[in-house]
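BUG: 3D viewer hangs when loading the predicted structure for this chain

Environment: internal workstation, default settings.
Expected: structure renders.
Actual: progress bar stalls at 90%.

Input used:
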Amino acid sequence: MSFYFPCDFSEYISDSIITDPAVTVGMYLIGAIDIVRAALLFVTQIVAAIAAAAIVNGLFTGGLNVSTELSATTSIAQGVIIEMLLTMSLVFTIFMLAAEKHTGNFIAPVGIGLALFVAELTGKLLRSSPESTQSQPQHHTNTLFPI
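Structure tokens produced before the viewer hung:
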């Protein structure tokens, strides 16, 4: 729902639907936005993501129970290809539903939200091990980015 309302009240291509740096670069490459707007959006998105991560880190006490590791049966190359294909499907959906001007643009947020939902579920299914999908507490140490 939080993704639907900003998209619903925007007209065709708006900054509110370009919430991903991959989408921003893609919109620039297809000529939907100019280089200045793309650069400003890209920098703003990175800074906003860092700020949002800091806010979430400050809101929750203790460590977060998250895991972004690949399963034992998924290689690093397979993980990169999975992420690439899922991101490509989301960006393509945004291009076809929001960037392409047609009479069905008012319903584009629903399709984009569904594509994002399917990509998240598919990514979790393909990347994670069966043990990490169960509701057991996981204890991971983050040695790369200690907080």
